[in-house]
Write a structure and sequence with these properties.
Layout: H1 3-17, E1 26-33, E2 35-37, E3 40-42, E4 44-47, E5 52-55, E6 58-61, E7 66-70, E8 72-77, E9 82-88, E10 90-93, E11 99-107, E12 115-121, E13 126-130, E14 143-144, E15 153-158, E16 173-183, H2 187-207
Antiparallel strand pairs: 1-8, 1-16, 2-3, 4-7, 4-16, 5-6, 7-10, 8-9, 9-11, 10-11, 11-12, 12-13, 14-15, 15-16
Length: about 210
Amino acid sequence: MSRPMILRAVILLAVVAGLPIASSSTPIELGLTSGSSGNLSFSFLHNATGAVQTEDGADFFRGGSTQVIAGSITATWDDANLFTNLSSGTISVTGGADFAVTGGSLDFGVAAGALIGTIVTDTYGTFYFYNYAFSSGATPANGFYPADPNHPLHLWANNWDNKNEAKPSSGAKGIDLGLRLTVVPEPNTALLFGMCIVAIKVGARRRE
């Protein structure tokens, strides 16, 4: 069986089974990584007690004692810029309380200075991610860095809405994330892949 015939067979099986050939929403895993980009090091949770950077009248806290965090976040990748349905299992915190992501969404298509979105946690509250690169050059912008394949998504935030709320008197935190993106195979995709493998094996046997 030739490759074009195998492909047609797989598509035909998908149509007969009522399976989608493609989906506009892709499950994705955002794996926390260790590393740095410019002056941003990751992945860490830190106390918001150090250096203050002011942008558009809002104070962002980028210093304080750090704790290494590890784990992964799952999301739905709805288009090139939008992640929704954020969640996770346990994110481990070295020397601190572990946490889980319980919600949030991120839209990297917003204008400069606008809110990209939030990551909601069960222990440290909600982190608010804004579309800023610090004018001082101290921290790169939240967003994608394709030239950095080991951690192509960089994110940093505090756990209060810096542009609309005062820093809380206690529990103020920052988070710095380097993330590796991995597409999660859906059951239908795995089934189609299995069908393709079977068809290839059948074709190979017939040629013997």
